Amino acid sequence: MRFIIGFLSVLALFVVGALIGPQFVDWEKYKPQIQTQVEKATGLSVELDSLGMSVLPMPHVTVDNLAVSSPKQKEFETLVTVKEAEVSVALLPLLQKNIQVKTVKLVDPVITLEILEDGTPSWQTEQLAPKEESSDAGEQSVASSSEAAPAVSLDKLLIKNGSLTFVDHAKKARHEVTSINTSLKADSLKGPFSGNGALVYEGKEIVFDMKAGDVSKEKAVPVRAEIKLPQSASSIAFDGVSALSMPLDVQG
User: Fold this and answer.
1) What is the pTM of this model?
2) Element (H, E) at 81
């Protein structure tokens, strides 16, 4: 009996150590290695002021002043900057190889994307460039990746005071969205999805509330959305289905 109690005590200490240990790790000294691994995997150069990780009360990562440089640029030096970012995941689903992201919070995210005159996207790197492969190989790759990939869900994505600028220099087109404040949810990477919030596009405030079904089960996905334009006291609502392939077919 003493052996069993002693064994359980040692096991408990290991578990507690595994959970509490990361609280006392100075993650700042690992920042260069993390940046190097990200650049190796994506080809994108990442800079950040501070990095923090902990396990309790749930695994989460915090980052301050994140900046991702644009590998190809004409107007913008960065692809993304974020003043504060925080990601937390549920602990127990991780033990079952499921990723349940509890919260992703982005404060003051600024996204700047452009298409150069030759049609090259500003975010394209050798690692992120589309790979050419046969249809058979592609189907096998998709099948194998879907079988091996863990289940991923997102309980809440919070964006506070975000902005997005997209410029197509080849077509001389420019689109800007500012004051993005929204909350989004995804039961899986293929839905269902839901979200609500507000943004400003071309000087006009837009308030939205939307829901979309699972895109993996049907050829057409159910969509429910309501968009309001407070400045003109007008709104539009849609409740129906939308095709997932071209040509676009919307019924509702």
Assistant:
1) 0.79
2) strand 78-89
